[in-house]
Amino acid sequence: xxxxxxxxxxxxxxxxxxxxxxxxxxxxxxxxxxxxxxxxxxxxxxxxxxxxxxxxxxxxxxxxxxxxxxxxxxxxxxxxxxxxxxxxxxxxxxxxxxxxxxxxxxxxxxxxxxxxxxxxxxxxxxxxxxxxxxxxxxxxxxxxxxxxxxxxxxxxxxxxxxxxxxxxxxxxxxxxxxxxxxxxxxxxxxxxxxxxxxxxxxxxxxxxxxxxxxxxxxxxxxxxxxxxxxxxxxxxxxxxxxxxxxxxxxxxxxxxxxxxxxxxxxxxxxxxxxxxxxxxxxxxxxxxxxxxxxxxxxxxxxxxxxxxxxxxxxxxxxxxxxxxxxxxxxxxxxxxxxxxxxxxxxxxxxxxxxxxxxxxxxxxxxxxxxxxxxxxxxxxxxxxxxxxxxxxxxxxxxxxxxxxxxxxxxxxxxxxxxxxxxxxxxxxxxxxxxxxxxxxxxxxxxxxxxxxxxxxxxxxxxxxxxxxxxxxxxxxxxxxxxxxxxxxxxxxxxxxxxxxxx
Amino acid sequence: xxxxxxxxxxxxxxxxxxxxxxxxxxxxxxxxxxxxxxxxxxxxxxxxxxxxxxxxxxxxxxxxxxxxxxxxxxxxxxxxxxxxxxxxxxxxxxxxxxxxxxxxxxxxxxxxxxxxxxxxxxxxxxxxxxxxxxxxxxxxxxxxxxxxxxxxxxxxxxxxxxxxxxxxxxxxxxxxxxxxxxxxxxxxxxxxxxxxxxxxxxxxxxxxxxxxxxxxxxxxxxxxxxxxxxxxxxxxxxxxxxxxxxxxxxxxxxxxxxxxxxxxxxxxxxxxxxxxxxxxxxxxxxxxxxxxxxxxxxxxxxxxxxxxxxxxxxxxxxxxxxxxxxxxxxxxxxxxxxxxxxxxxxxxxxxxxxxxxxxxxxxxxxxxxxxxxxxxxxxxxxxxxxxxxxxxxxxxxxxxxxxxxxxxxxxxxxxxxxxxxxxxxxxxxxxxxxxxxxxxxxxxxxxxxxxxxx
Lengths: 502, 454
Ligand SMILES: Cc1ncc(COP(=O)(O)O)c(C=O)c1O
Known about the structure:
Largest interface: A-B, 208 and 215 residues
Mean pLDDT of chain A: 96
Structural class of chain B: alpha/beta
Bound molecules: pyridoxal-5'-phosphate
CATH topology of the largest domain in chain B: Aspartate Aminotransferase, domain 2
Oligomer: heterodimer
Helix content of chain B: 25-40%
CATH architecture of the largest domain in chain A: 3-Layer(aba) Sandwich
Shape of chain B: globular
Shape of chain A: globular
Number of helices of chain A: 17
């Protein structure tokens, strides 16, 4: 771990290994100097009379700024990212993140703004939020939105609690939420967290919701149906109007998981499809950076009859003549409350609004057109070597199966994914959705060139050929990465989730 | 602006390969009546120059901490942020990667998470920490859910000195399983064991956990050890909601008996950003590890024996366990957590202690100065970096006057409290971090005096 035992010089090689920051720690070594404060005369023990202070300092590393910069730079070099290569991780919309968004979010007027400044001193921030809400409502075909949820899953929770509050306001205690078997894990997890019983409905032969099964599952106890459309197979559910009708007839609400909205911008709106509640993943569709897992933002838009249940506060606009002012409305007695502190991941909202303003209506539609074009193009290239469980138009992503390959050669989707790493690609999402055996879910996004797609398909083809010839090569892959396959079972059996400090 | 690379020739070639004439053909599966059939009604597209103009105009309307001296607190504060953090976070390999599902090409992310987890364990004095939550409030709500599940009880107890946002978030999250939050009023500004005991005794065996701010919303360092002990005697878990900066100086919540420590990571090298994104930390005793929410990274070895790390204990998570997951969280706040790891590495134990010490010293000196200006502390009790002042101005709109005069003088005077604490309608929560100067405190004192005499 501390580099000892390796050949001299080996620790200097970039992109191969980097010991823990604790290996760079030496007692007494100092990094940056914080401000000393202006009142050294105040005796801390006096000021904190009766408070127990630490006798043992926390085991934080003791390093210098150059060591810290080098360490984290070297760590970064062990990562694969959109900036370094094609990242067709299905369902995650790993497209280019425009850097103008970073620049604008870092303006002091946004980044250095305290959330408790008086409203009149935050008019720019409130206006931005109001206009982003307005844009998201237009894009989704909804009436009002909250920007508070921090990510898609929290948006789902917000939505499910609105569902509860809505039914409760009508004196109904409906207990069931229906999700299709193709749903993302957050859907059932969220419904359960919101106190619902989760009922799964199967998909039909074309990959959509099995409408017969759905109508049997819907009843007076059904609170909502959660759907992704296009769904996690990348397929648009052609029966959506019928599904919406059946759901509403049963008195239930229809929830739109917007993780796949990259396929429908300016083309079709969840509101027009019949959905009542929509969440967006701004870190997907509106291209705010994924940051190794976050931050994201998961705004939730609703039809007007659900607006009273939105979390507090909401931003309202007041117009006096040509003058517009913006304020928070806290007085919403039917609100579900709040899901987090303050107003949401504001810095992410700034980036998403910049993205929407950069592209405009035409640009957003072009996003979806090119995303769908790229996905269909790549799907047809990849279908030469892998099975297409649903042979039809896809939207912004598609799912192929390595089942045939496995039967022929014994190699699995996991092996294909690992071998792709050796070819310099981030693999697709594998083993999701659960309803496709040996699933590989590919989302190329609109920011990739035709050359990249062609080359990626060639890599997959080469791997499929290798699988027949030298299957062990795939099982041993990757070999050209900083580490090889890691023992995940061992990690879970005896979890070591921290370094020894100091 | 448009970020796609295709030329018209590219598009035509790809369409031809697909046997399609126009891109419309690729949307043939969307029934015509569900198509929008008109352009979205959005403002026109802007190039980067126009975007800069627009956003700079919006930014200029906000009282940011570059142009104003900020004394507002309540969870977010104007702390020193070391210069090395932003350029490291801006590296595309961190910024544009996602959750490390492929550990072989994510060792940077994973090692960073393990370092972060280690540091959170060290700060909190607890055994295990996760890779981050959305923010402090949602982390606390998740801790409350853990407690409900663990104890098979359905109520959470907290004092009204726990931040209002945090209480509200717990309440929202608990509405799912049908749990209740009971709030104990603490008119003296801090929670006491007697009050806790009385509240617990009112509903024997009902409470899954007691949640306490450390320091609390009013800046006061509660007697965490005593509160934990009382909570445990009632069979409830003790959850501490902590200011991570304070943990550089105060005894750790783990050492004082807390079972779970949570909090918001903004002070650890993250921008205030109008309240987000920051991150929530979540640390707990070993025995809760399999019930924890969120991602956890763990150490292991690869096929050739090299050390590496992976996401571990994933069977807790939504993508495996679905409706029976410990939480629905998927995307978290990894980049902000990395900022904290870099921050703590840059400061080290000595630097963090210095920051915490300077907070205490600055805040106490400022308290004396404001007292001299007639703004007395509302509560007794030892405070860390913020405290509640009662304004000298007896008028009902004293707070508005101070805030308005402050803005005119380049000062954000504090956090108003009246909406959440009607009894504190003439009070401000004033936060004085290590970044403030004596001159700035003088300006605040002058603002309070001017507002009182105007
Ligand atoms: C289909 C789908 N739904 C929901 C989510 C959850 O979104 P988030 O990760 O932003 O919480 C995801 C993302 O991973 C997803 O792909």
